[in-house]
Amino acid sequence: MKLIFALILSVVSLQVQAGGLKHILPGIIGGILDPNRPAPYPDQPYPPAPGYGPVTCMSQDYNWEQHPGGHYSCGECLSYHYNCVETCRSYEVDCQVERRDFFGRTFIVYGRGYDQYQAQDDAIRNCQSAPLTASCRVMGCYQQSNIVSQRSCR
After folding, report:
1. DSSP class of 77
2. How large is the C-alpha radius of gyration of the chain?
3. How far apart are CA 104 and CA 154, in angstroms?
4. Nearest by Cα to 151 from 41, 43, 74, 66
């Protein structure tokens, strides 16, 4: 136990000499509270979501689709058109939260989920788990889609 404590103190002292205590203290406290959760540092990208969320597929005419929203399956699309393309997408939502600490400084904290409620909850949780947090305010969310697969129906 003493060896582990001495090792931690030596790493902290080296990091303090390199960049100052204010840059590493949030990471140390966050690592002690929950070592598996990424530290919500500002201006650093949030880690990607693990795997795909719910996948939605849609089929459309290869040339020009005159039906808004396309078709639900390749078979339905081919009953109306000669050639169709099926595109499957995964959607995810990213949210930004403004975190204000007790010194009045503001930071941007991120959250990610498969819908807006899950992404906001993740962002608020990241904000509130940061040390010395005085307030958290949702700035906005945006949805992005990723093409998982695309194939010809013929």
Report:
1. H
2. 23
3. 61
4. 74
Which tens digits make up the pLDDT trace of 59-78?
A: 988 877 777 778 888 888 88
**Number of helices followed by number of strands (H, E) in the chain:** 4, 4
The string of pLDDT tens digits covering residues 77-125 is 888 888 899 999 888 899 999 999 888 899 999 999 988 899 999 999 9
Q: Which amino acid is at 138?
A: V
**What H or E segment, with its residue span, contains residue 19?**
helix 2-19
Q: Specify the amino acid at residue 111.
A: G
Distance CA 56, CA 15 (A): 47
By residue count, the chain amounts to: 154
